[in-house]
UniProtKB/TrEMBL annotation:
<feature type="transmembrane region" description="Helical">
    <location>
        <begin position="80"/>
        <end position="101"/>
    </location>
</feature>
<dbReference type="GO" id="GO:0005886">
    <property type="term" value="C:plasma membrane"/>
</dbReference>
<keyword id="KW-0812">Transmembrane</keyword>
<keyword id="KW-0029">Amino-acid transport</keyword>
<feature type="transmembrane region" description="Helical">
    <location>
        <begin position="218"/>
        <end position="236"/>
    </location>
</feature>
<keyword id="KW-0472">Membrane</keyword>
<feature type="transmembrane region" description="Helical">
    <location>
        <begin position="149"/>
        <end position="167"/>
    </location>
</feature>
<comment type="function">
    <text>Involved in transporting aromatic amino acids across the cytoplasmic membrane.</text>
</comment>
<feature type="transmembrane region" description="Helical">
    <location>
        <begin position="331"/>
        <end position="351"/>
    </location>
</feature>
<keyword id="KW-0813">Transport</keyword>
<dbReference type="GO" id="GO:0015173">
    <property type="term" value="F:aromatic amino acid transmembrane transporter activity"/>
</dbReference>
<feature type="transmembrane region" description="Helical">
    <location>
        <begin position="40"/>
        <end position="59"/>
    </location>
</feature>
<protein>
    <recommendedName>
        <fullName>Aromatic amino acid permease</fullName>
    </recommendedName>
</protein>
<dbReference type="InterPro" id="IPR018227">
    <property type="entry name" value="Amino_acid_transport_2"/>
</dbReference>
<feature type="transmembrane region" description="Helical">
    <location>
        <begin position="372"/>
        <end position="397"/>
    </location>
</feature>
<keyword id="KW-1133">Transmembrane helix</keyword>
<dbReference type="GO" id="GO:0003333">
    <property type="term" value="P:amino acid transmembrane transport"/>
</dbReference>
Length: 398
């Protein structure tokens, strides 16, 4: 396998993982401190890398162009396929709702800042959704061209923000401990969502022609790159603002404002805002395109079918954002439930069944049944945490 393909696959995994969920990390970690969030991130990275390797093992028993739905149907039957489809839809819609809620708020601020247009929050959200929807409906090629430019700008903005914030880190801020124990569990679903990349695994398997050693390398390194970037991001955000300030200023707009006010540099507020805007926009474009194509296969091919698919794609998450304009963190938490099904429960159930019938697989992930039990326990904890937040037993974040 060529090094170029392995490198490309590694970067695809890293790029898929690093998105707007990165912006939620300081909000989710505000009440638990840097060291606790670091422990949770490392554990969730290990969990997600492990289940991704399980997916590689599963793909040995199918053709290299098999999708998650194909695997689920082949191994678990129609019920498995339906479960995978439902979880995929739930995940896509939850992520789109989060990005519209966060992006709509940011877009409204930009209209006020640049053009002195004081629109209502609802109007800004609708206009933002329509702009992105029009790009997606036009076609994948348009999304690709727009996304390349935006992704490059996002990387430059992220590097600039990290460089500006790093010299202002205060060691005492990084030593903050959890305000209450419930916040530790409440932070897990949001942090978990920021490590999701499993939807891209079938495409990577196809691209690397099912080469197991190359896939292992791409997955481990590709998922580790976001972990390193997230650690630096947590270091410079939790380290430049006191815990009390972060807790008192919840919400994406408040986080950007607080970071900007802390660093006495010209234009740093604009750069931080630009990075947040680009992170939301690139993530929203990628996820909404995936949802659009997913739904497009189910809608009959007829005149204006792309417009109809666009309406079905964007209306439900936009309605959520209109009813819950501060629902960025909330929607990411709900996305964790769907991601747990797709990235933990389905792979574990499928590999357990395959291992009972196939005994000569060239590659098998270590850990045996104990590893599968640990993964299942972690998945149950993630889903339970979000349910407990929803019914009010655990504190809500953001």
């Amino acid at each position: 396998m060529s090094k170029s393909k392995v490198l490309g696959s590694t970067l695809i995994i890293a790029g898929t993982t690093i998105g707007a969920g990165m912006l939620a990390l300081p909000l989710a970690s505000a009440g638990i401190g840097f060291s606790t969030s670091l422990t949770i991130m490392a554990a969730l990275w290990a969990l997600m890398a492990y289940t991704a390797l399980i997916m590689v093992e599963l793909h040995q028993h199918a053709s290299s162009d098999a999708t998650l739905h194909t695997l689920a149907k082949q191994i678990l039957g129609k019920k498995g396929k339906y479960l995978a489809s439902f979880a995929m839809l739930f995940l896509f819609y939850s992520l789109c709702a989060a990005y519209i809620a966060g992006g709509g708020s940011q877009f409204n601020q930009r209209l006020d800042q640049w053009f002195d247009l004081k629109l209502s929050a609802a109007s800004g959200t609708v206009i933002f959704t329509l702009l992105v929807a029009s790009i997606v409906v036009i076609g994948t090629a348009t999304v690709d061209k727009v996304n390349r430019v935006l992704f490059t700008l996002k990387l430059v903005a992220m590097a600039t923000v990290l460089l500006f914030l790093a010299p202002n880190v205060t060691q005492s801020y990084l030593l903050s401990m959890p305000i209450q124990q419930g916040l530790i569990v409440a932070a897990i679903p949001v942090i978990f969502t920021s490590f999701g990349f499993h939807g891209s695994i079938p495409a990577i398997v196809r691209y690397l022609d099912g080469d197991t050693p190359a896939l292992k390398k791409a997955i481990v390194i590709g998922s580790a790159i976001p972990l390193v970037i997230y650690i630096f991001w947590q270091l410079v955000t939790l380290g430049v603002v006191s815990q009390s300030e972060l807790v008192d200023n919840q919400g994406l707009a408040a986080l950007i404002s607080t970071l900007s006010a802390t660093v006495q540099q010209n234009n740093i507020a604009n750069i931080i805002g630009l990075f947040a805007d680009l992170a939301l926009l690139t993530s929203f474009l990628g996820v909404s395109l995936g949802l659009f194509e997913f739904l497009g296969d189910s809608i009959n091919k007829k005149k204006n079918s792309r417009v109809l698919t666009g309406v079905v794609t964007f209306t439900p998450p936009m309605c959520f954002a209109l009813f819950y304009p501060q629902g960025f963190i909330m929607a990411l938490g709900y996305a964790a439930i769907a991601l747990a099904i797709l990235a933990i429960f389905l792979p574990v159930v499928m590999i357990h069944k395959v291992r009972r019938t196939e005994h000569n697989a060239p590659y098998q992930v270590g850990g045996g049944n104990l590893g599968l039990m640990v993964c299942t326990g972690a998945g149950v904890m993630i889903v339970s945490a979000q349910i407990l937040i929803t019914i009010g037993i655990l504190p809500a974040l953001g």
